[in-house]
Design brief:
The protein has about 500 residues and is of the alpha+beta class. Helices cover about 20% and strands about 20% of the residues. The chain has 13 helices and 20 strands. InterPro entries: Papain-like_cys_pep_sf, Pept_asp_AS, Pept_his_AS, Peptidase_C1A, Peptidase_C1A_C, Somatomedin_B_dom.
Length: about 500
């Protein structure tokens, strides 16, 4: 009996002691066999007395309180000699190997409810697994890379949000703005760890596009904005003066300029948000500043292929260099240089015209103006919540750099704030368009256009908390004026 009690104490410290308990000669049974039932999930009543405590015959027994407390005959009686419940274990370090408990070699491996023969391979989310022979037993070994979609994280987010179905995005507010009558282009709609003290204000979902991908793949190929240099961060911000002191509680550029804001694109698995966000903001501002007379959908592919000086294409780029390129050389419309999501050689010479590039001509009076590429003025930085809001309401969407945490990939709806539990994982930088703002239940938010397609988030958009620099989204916000041939009067004065 002393030997059995000693073994039970070891069990409380190590999952590996489970085999020793099963083979211990002094632990007389049966246990689960005497109960004559095996319970799915967690059923605390599915238990049998053992040595002054309880052992369990439910599927949760390998995971209760982080320490296995299955009855000695649980696996032989309930799983036919195998371990049938390969539970998800979040990776702490990429490259770690998770070893499910061993089972007799003759039975192969049972993993996630299925039996595998020795040497047979499978995948568990983003990880590769193989049933191998070790020390006379069969074990399923899986890599432990952190996956883009974390099912445990989804459960935590949605539980903290109240386990409610994802609420639809709020209706577009009825607002007006400068140039609201402008038109031309159609608009499309379409773990364990720390917990926050307040419920999440957003819901998460499992996207098929992201399932089976590692976090490393997501950060490398679904973002693509390189960390800004110190020189860029020291850029002197522009401040608005003489603007109306009162800003509306909500504003949406999609309503103010309904045919000027470009639709959400999908960058695919090409880390080039630097190119897509720059081209989209430039497109929007051409349409807005020309009162709808110039409505190009400018080519992000032109930037990807041709803006290659100290840029890295689908492996990331700098925003200041992208804006410099649009100022010096200009861009062609997407119609004659469509997005492919992969790098190619540049098809537009530096001194090209719309005519020589075989692109649609511009709306202008002179021949020279008709054939000029679409160029932007000098890029400038905006500092502070109110300056960003005034810039949007006056001249259209702006470009924001943000830090992306793992949980953003699972965002479905609501006002996003990253979960503290994901702060241990690696992050990356991304650039998006800010198109408006609002407030819900006393919580202020920005409305942002992503570049992951309309299938993601709120028809390709997301709301993120405003005024707190959530994910550094207010740290580096950029804009530029469009060189249009049809200008509107501006009643704003700006100073540098």
């Amino acid at each position: 009996m002393l030997e059995a009690l000693s073994l039970l104490l070891v069990l409380a410290r190590s999952a590996e002691a489970l085999d020793a308990i099963e083979m211990g000669p002094d632990l007389e049974g049966p246990y689960c066999a005497r109960l004559d039932k095996c319970c799915p999930g967690r059923v605390d009543e599915c238990s049998v007395p053992i040595l002054g405590t309880l052992c369990y015959c439910d599927a949760f027994c390998s995971n209760r309180s982080g320490t296995p407390d299955c009855c000695p005959d649980y696996h032989s009686h309930c799983n036919g000699g195998g371990y049938g419940y390969g539970r998800y274990v979040p990776a702490e370090r990429p490259g770690d190997v998770y070893q499910p408990p061993p089972i007799p070699l003759r039975d192969g491996c049972i993993f996630n409810g299925r039996r595998y023969t020795v040497t047979e391979k499978t995948r568990s989310n983003c990880n590769d697994c193989q049933c191998i022979q070790m020390n006379g037993r069969a074990e399923m070994l899986c890599s432990r890379d952190r996956c883009l979609i974390d099912t445990e994280m989804l459960e935590i987010v949605n539980r903290e949000a109240g386990s409610k179905p994802a609420a639809p995005p709020p209706p577009l507010p009825v607002v007006s703005g400068p140039g609201a009558s402008g038109g031309g282009r159609g608009h499309h709609h379409g773990g364990q760890g720390h917990h926050r003290a307040r419920p999440a204000r957003w819901t998460a979902t499992n996207y098929t596009e992201f399932w089976g991908r590692s976090l490393e793949e997501g950060l490398s190929l679904r973002l693509g904005t390189l960390s800004p240099s110190e020189a860029v961060l020291r850029m002197h911000p522009l401040h608005h003066t003489l603007d109306p002191p009162n800003l509306p509680a909500s504003f949406d550029a999609r309503v103010a300029w309904p045919r000027a804001v470009s639709p959400v694109q999908d960058q695919g698995w090409c880390g080039a948000s630097w190119a897509l966000s720059t081209a989209a903001v430039a497109s929007d501002r051409f349409a807005i500043m020309s009162l709808g007379h110039e409505t190009p959908s400018l080519a992000a592919q032109h930037l990807l292929d041709c803006n290659n000086r100290k840029q890295h294409g689908c492996n990331g780029g700098h925003l200041d260099r992208a804006w410099y390129f649009t100022r010096k050389f200009g861009l062609v419309p997407d119609a004659c240089y469509p997005w492919t999501g992969r790098e190619d050689k540049c098809h537009v010479p530096k001194k090209a015209t719309l005519d020589t590039a075989r692109c649609p001509l511009r709306a202008a009076t002179s021949r020279k103006a008709k054939t000029e590429l679409y160029r932007m003025g000098p890029v400038y930085r905006l500092a502070g919540e109110e300056d960003i809001m005034r810039e949007i309401i006056r001249s259209g969407p702006v470009q924001a750099t943000m830090r992306v945490y793992q949980d953003l990939f699972s965002y479905q709806s609501g006002i996003y704030e990253h979960m503290p539990m994901v702060e241990v994982a690696r992050t990356g930088f991304h650039s998006v368009r800010l198109v408006g703002w609002g407030e819900e239940d006393g919580v202020k938010y920005w409305v942002a256009a992503n570049s992951w397609g309309e299938w993601w988030g709120e028809r390709g958009y997301f709301r993120i908390r405003r005024g707190t620099d959530e994910c550094d989204i207010e740290k580096l916000v950029l804009a530029a004026w469009a060189h249009t041939h049809i200008h509107r009067d501006l009643d704003n004065t700006i100073t540098m």
